[in-house]
Automatic annotation (TrEMBL):
This is Methyltransferase domain-containing protein. Coiled coil: none annotated. Pfam families: Methyltransf_25, PALP. Homodimer. Belongs to the cysteine synthase/cystathionine beta-synthase family. The keyword Methyltransferase applies. The lineage of its organism: Bacteria, Bacillati, Bacillota, Bacilli, Bacillales. Keywords: Amino-acid biosynthesis, Cysteine biosynthesis, Methyltransferase, Pyridoxal phosphate, Transferase. GO terms for molecular function: methyltransferase activity. Residues 49-136 form the Methyltransferase domain. PANTHER family: CYSTATHIONINE BETA-SYNTHASE. GO terms for biological process: cysteine biosynthetic process; methylation. The keyword Amino-acid biosynthesis applies. Gene3D superfamilies: 3.40.50.1100, Vaccinia Virus protein VP39 (3.40.50.150).
Length: 506
């Protein structure tokens, strides 16, 4: 920091608190809501905090009251003398650029960063980027200008009021433009958020960008609007694209939740996990089992897609094929028998309450994505996705989707080509009164919608997404002005061997 400032601080020290409390009319507009502003800034602080330019210690006291571990770094002896008395802690001598460099969670300053030139600001933020711990932040409460025009018009305004000290200040100090702060932040690997708190003061939060790790890719899937199909007035269809999960389907959410809960409870004693699945559950479980060094055995009726079986194997699962004609119920019996004989942990997706509870985060994401949800449409294999969402969206119109040959509509169990959905036995965890409508969709309709989604929207989805879309289109006909959310569980590339784009399946 340039030396002339040190003299200014000398003069300012004894008067500083008169400025911030609005007793100097010239600086009243700069410090309107001072206490509120520093309280807001402190809300973002966490962990080990480094405060630059604590001055007379007002912000420092707020930080200390939060129980934070604070290093206060002040260049001016005069300021520090007052601040140390007020806060009861010893201030280190130094400034934004010269200080003992140690890792920290927060770098914070109030009404001080403008003493640095723009180049110095850039160097300082670069230093903080290196020192910040993961998830760390830089918090800068200070005057900045939204544009050069705004700065000039403020200078004119305060000149006309005869506020010579303030005007001199505005001309002398390095109050940056917002766009300068944005580019400094971005150059140094930060996301930048700015909230303007009064005519002069902006609360700027710089969050260190973090590079994701593979498991961060479970959840937070994109939501898109489907617009290629005619809808009743005011109806909108939004699709949650669950193939963006790490293992390529909605079932990663289940794999993560079921295994984490079982590990927390100490249920996995033998180091082995067993399940019966059409494949996506197996992939979700395999990902998580691999991470925790658990063995996984899955029972899969042999008709199901070879792609999913290959992926499970690649993730380290052992696959036992069961005869197609004996269905999923037989695969479940085999899995249970194996668990009883060996002590392996049976995740039991068809009965475990940890299945529906896997979708709480999905529900939260949906609310964050679209706000109001009038109708929710989800397919049922185990029924977990639908049940989890239906508990959450109690007031919405809740539509459960099944293929022909599934028993939810009271019909007999039979074969179908639509993969991943279809129920052979009513799920224990699914109360009937959670369902407002059952949509039973033919394979032809599901596969037609898969092809149309590819041709009209460029979306390559699995057949259970096609069925869910057809169900949403059927249901929307009874309503207007509805926000309709449909779950698309996985993508078509894992069904190429099943001729997914060949509607008649020949
Ligand atoms: C492709 C696909 N769609 C839908 C579902 C249905 O999900 P749930 O078991 O939660 O009912 C599954 C389940 O495996 C699936 O794999």
């Amino acid at each position: 920091m340039s030396l002339p400032f040190m003299d200014i601080f000398k003069d300012w020290a004894s008067e500083y608190d008169n400025f911030v409390t609005g007793q100097d009319p010239e600086y009243k507009d700069v410090f309107v809501n001072y206490d509120f502003m520093i309280a807001q800034a402190v809300k973002y602080a966490k962990g080990d905090v480094v405060e630059f330019g604590p001055g007379t210690g007002n912000l420092t006291n707020y930080l200390l009251q939060q129980g934070l571990n604070v290093r206060a770094i002040e260049p001016s002896e005069e300021m520090a003398a007052i601040g140390e008395k007020k806060t009861g802690i010893t201030f280190e001598r130094g400034d934004f650029l010269n200080f003992k460099q140690q890792p920290a969670d927060t770098f914070i300053s109030s009404f001080a960063f403008h003493h640095l030139t723009d180049t110095e600001k850039d160097i300082a933020i670069g230093k903080y980027a290196e020192l910040l711990n993961e998830g760390g932040r830089v918090i800068i409460l200070d005057t900045i200008f939204n544009s050069e025009e705004e700065k000039q018009s403020m200078i004119e305004h305060y000149t006309s009021l005869g506020f010579n000290n303030l005007v001199e200040d505005l001309n002398r100090e390095y109050y940056p433009l917002k766009e300068t702060m944005e580019s400094i932040a971005s150059r140094n690997g930060f996301d930048y958020h700015d909230t303007q708190l009064n005519r002069f003061a902006h609360l700027q939060i710089l969050e260190k960008k973090t590079i994701k790790k593979p498991f961060d890719l479970i959840g937070h899937t994109p939501m898109i609007e489907i617009t290629a199909f005619p809808l009743n007035k005011g109806n909108r269809i939004f699709a949650k694209l669950e193939h963006h999960n790490l293992g390529g389907s909605v079932k990663d959410r289940l794999g993560l939740n079921i295994i984490m809960k079982a590990l927390d409870r100490g249920d996995i004693k033998s180091g082995q996990v067993v399940e019966a699945t059409a494949g996506n559950t197996g992939i979700g479980l395999a990902l998580v089992c691999q991470k925790f060094d658990l063995k996984l055995r899955v029972y899969v009726p042999e008709k199901f897609s070879v792609e999913k079986q290959s992926i499970m194997r690649a993730l380290g699962a052992e696959i036992i094929n069961t005869p197609t004609e004996k269905g999923m119920l037989f695969a479940r019996e085999e899995a249970l028998k194996y668990a009883q004989e060996t002590g392996a942990f049976f995740t039991n997706q068809f009965e475990s309450p940890d299945n529906p509870s896997s979708y709480e985060e999905l529900a939260n994401e949906i609310i964050a994505d679209v706000g109001r949800v009038d109708m929710i449409v989800a397919g049922a294999g185990s029924g977990g996705t639908f049940t989890g969402l239906a508990h959450y969206f109690k007031d919405a119109h809740k539509v459960i989707v099944e293929p022909e040959g599934s028993i939810l509509n009271g019909g007999a169990s039979g074969s179908h080509r639509t993969e991943g959905i279809g129920v052979e036995k009513w799920p224990d965890f699914l109360p009937k009164d959670l369902i407002d409508a059952v949509e039973t969709i033919s394979d032809i309709d599901a596969f037609t919608k898969v092809s149309e989604l590819a041709k009209l929207e460029g979306l390559m989805q699995g057949s259970s997404s096609g069925a869910a879309l057809q169900a949403a289109l059927n249901q929307q006909q009874h309503f207007t002005n509805q926000n309709i959310v449909v779950i698309f569980p996985d993508a078509s590339d894992r069904y190429l061997s099943q001729a997914i784009f060949n509607i008649k399946g020949e």
